[in-house]
Amino acid sequence: MLSPHEGETYVDCTAGLGGHATLIAPLVGASGRIVLNDVDDGNLGKAAEAVRRAGSGVGGDRCPEVVTIRGNFAELPRALGERGIRADMVLADLGFSSNQVDDPARGLSFRLDGPLDMRLDASLKLSAADLVNGLSEGELARILRDYGEERHAGLVARKLVQARKESPILTTARLAEVVRSVLSGRSGPSQIDPATRSFQALRIGVNDELGSLEALLAAVLRGVGTSGSWLSGGARVAIISFHSLEDRLVKRAFEEVESRGVGGVLTRSPVMADEPEQRANPRSRSAKLRAVRMGGALGG
User: Fold this and answer.
1) Stretch (H or E) spanning 63
2) Residue 57 reports pLDDT greater than 80
């Protein structure tokens, strides 16, 4: 979907450990540019190192210029404009990276007990523990319903408020225990843990993930043909989402790109991992890739 060419600029909104960027680097070559963005300083440094290694690999020096920008990708279009950088390719792989979810200190997983944090950006003021222990029952229910699509949001919120009166909910294990005590047996047989939707909802709330995505999509819609544009004509923009809330936003925005006549949708249906990939990487099962090309309507 990104169709990399020699000398182009690739912008990775969610660099992680550089997995996607390392595949792109040799293809844009020494005359190209790789821009890495992430809210996680540690990951950003590792991604830059991985890209430089990949670009300088077999076949001589193929290392493109590497630019690192720390911050939320909602601010990335502005940051690129200030630097005079225009993207030929943009990728946003939404959510958290594997090394973050596997770190108990992040508090992102109910599989590993740790502090109830969930902040992808450590500089954010409020953690998941602050939300769970500080919000009203009604506001907790709204977050669980709107961000987790939890059918029993009211019941879970009520139980959380009751439980925190006994003692603050400060760990992932305690949060999962409280949620499961409400939901176990209510949803019938399911392949997902009863706590999954609540954890998703709180993570989205803590990091304002949908707000950031909406800001990025708005920048795509106004990105070509304007003063200080951050997208080149013909830029390809791809977004990988992992739940329906994200995918709906991406689908609607990309359809609007086409309806306005400023670009064309490359994916009439989302691209999903095939069975071999899902077996090799179970986390790919819920991934959906959508893409557009900017700069005029396209067929197909």
Assistant:
1) none
2) no
Say how many Å lie between the first and final Cα of the chain, rounded: 13
Determine the Cα–Cα distance for residues 111 and 176; give it in Å rounded to an integer.
Answer: 9
How many Å apart are CA 244 and CA 209, to the nearest integer? 13
Kindly write down the DSSP assignment for every residue of 109-169, as one continuous string.
Answer: -SSS--BS---SSTT-S--HHHHHHHS-HHHHHHHHHHHH--TTHHHHHHHHHHHHHHS--
Residue ranges of the domains in the chain?
9-93+209-294, 104-207
Q: Which tens digits make up the pLDDT trace of 241-280?
A: 999 999 999 999 999 999 999 999 999 999 999 999 999 9
Torsion (CA) 238, 244, 43, 74 in degrees, nearest 10 = 70
Name the one residue in this structure whose structure tokens are 């077999």.
Answer: 58
Q: pTM of the full predicted structure?
A: 0.89
The architecture (CATH level 2) of 9-93+209-294 comes to 3-Layer(aba) Sandwich (3.40)
φ/ψ bin of 70: left (φ > 0), alpha (ψ from -120 to 50), beta (otherwise): beta
CATH number of 104-207: 1.10.150.170
| Dihedral over Cα of 297, 251, 121, 140: its sign | positive
Q: Would the pLDDT of 223 be above 50? A: yes
Contact 71, 37 (CB under 8 A): yes
**Rg value, the chain, Cα:** 20
The secondary structure element, H or E, covering residue 56 is none
